[in-house]
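quick one, two chains, predict together pls
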Amino acid sequence: MLRGLYTAAAGMMTQQRRHDTVTNNISNLNTPGYKQVTSVGRSFPEMLLRLTGVEGDKPRRIGAVNTGVFAEESLSVHIQGDLYSTGRMSDFAILSDLQVPGVQFDGSGKAVDEDGNVVYQPQAFFTVRDADGGIRYTRNGAFLVNDEGYLVTNDGSFVLGTDNNPIQFPPGLGLDRLTLTGELRFVDENGADTGAQLLVTVVENPNRLVQEGYGKFRLNDDDADLARPAEAEDRIAVRQGHLERSNVDAAQAMVDLMSALRAYESNQRVIQFYDQSLNKAVNEVGKV
Amino acid sequence: MNSSMINAMASMHAMQRRLDVIADNIANLNTAGYKRKTASFEELLTTLKEQDERFAQAGRKMPLGFSIGWGARMTQVRLDLSQGPIQFTDNPYDLAIQGLALFEVIADGEGNRAYTRNGAFQARLNDAGDIVVTTADGHPVVVQEENGAEGPLLLPAGYDLQVDAWGRIRAVSGDGSDIVELGRLKLVEPVRPEALLAVADNLFAVADGVDPADVIRDVQPDAENDVRITQGALEQSNVRLETELTELLMVQRAYQLSARALSSADTMMSLANQLRA
């Protein structure tokens, strides 16, 4: 059987996934706090080919082949997005550059030591509780105060304070009169503390975060120990009246889109060639 | 199904709506008291394609599962209540607010209240034959008397309206010999602007089922705050054309890019159809 037919089909499916991922990045070009996603492909396990039915007792070895490719993971790129001013006091943006002792991170947020061990840069997130009570992490700080005084996200998830409870402001007190201090406390115009302190969570390895949609991420139960509340010495700042722009690079997205399309086309061509070969085998080999 | 296509379609729809908001702002560039609207965006749901244990290969960075996003949506339109420039008109019925406050007006015959920043008021005769100060749409302005009683602003016939910076209202007779104290303008501060509902032309109301005390609070101009009233002036719209046009540009380009993704997805489908040429 023509082995490569399935390989080319797998290639088409993988490129389709890549195209979908890039399209989603483009869709979220203007979504605050959005983190670009890259789809990572992996080849199918290697197969060793041997020539059988030859003279002699041992089959001859031909070599290893990979018989396909699949989209393995959809990796979020957690690099800092630009901040922009909105002038709305209920908008918040995280600026973080967390360091690990003895490690120098590169621009993509990872560091490789001499032995080849990789350390990923920890990232900071707002901590929210969704309708089902699950703890989620987000970089989208476009919050609002609802009519009950709770600080909530766009989809109604509660923003948590350092006491792990939703932040609630007393009636008659809105964010226009409150300022966020460097310790992430909300103080009013006279400098009086409201008692609410914003909880920023540090995730040690952001690659273990799973995209939940609506700008939220979650950690699986077995990765729960990767999260810890931010400490004073962490290099994290939260800016009130600002939002973090999506970190999608439009030019890169366009190039990825075109290359995914063309690679898809190439795979389609390969299938057509296989089809022609089959056509020859079926209709022409036996022709008298 | 080709999820790129659905994705691009959903986000083009969202961007179209954002364009509508920008168009609304630009159209109201010269509307007195207009407050600019901003659209906020959010990612749509993500579906997680299950992967079994065999996918946990060496070098993998993420937990099992391959997630696919489905585009973006516009979540809500929010008000930007920042101050607009004050323009003098010399019309005594034009009042402008400086600072964070709204005029309170009577919205309907049942006495329900609404709030506005548009201080282009006028005097008109009501059914009872009294001169009442109303908005351009006929909603009477609310005044608060010394004893706390509230009612529509009624002007004695032949008297002129006089409002000072603290919102105190006096009626002055034509020759200036008689002055009648009418109380103070009723002003409210929007504490939770997101809970206010835009009901009509430049008019906001508290949604049904929401306690007004949670959303707004009474405010009086005084030495403590920076709320002031200017008579004979109008607050212009706080829309700035350069901001809007920059946003327009960004939305348009993002829309274009999504359209490219859509046509690229279309090409992919066509390629799949031509597999057996």
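The mean pLDDT of chain B is 89.
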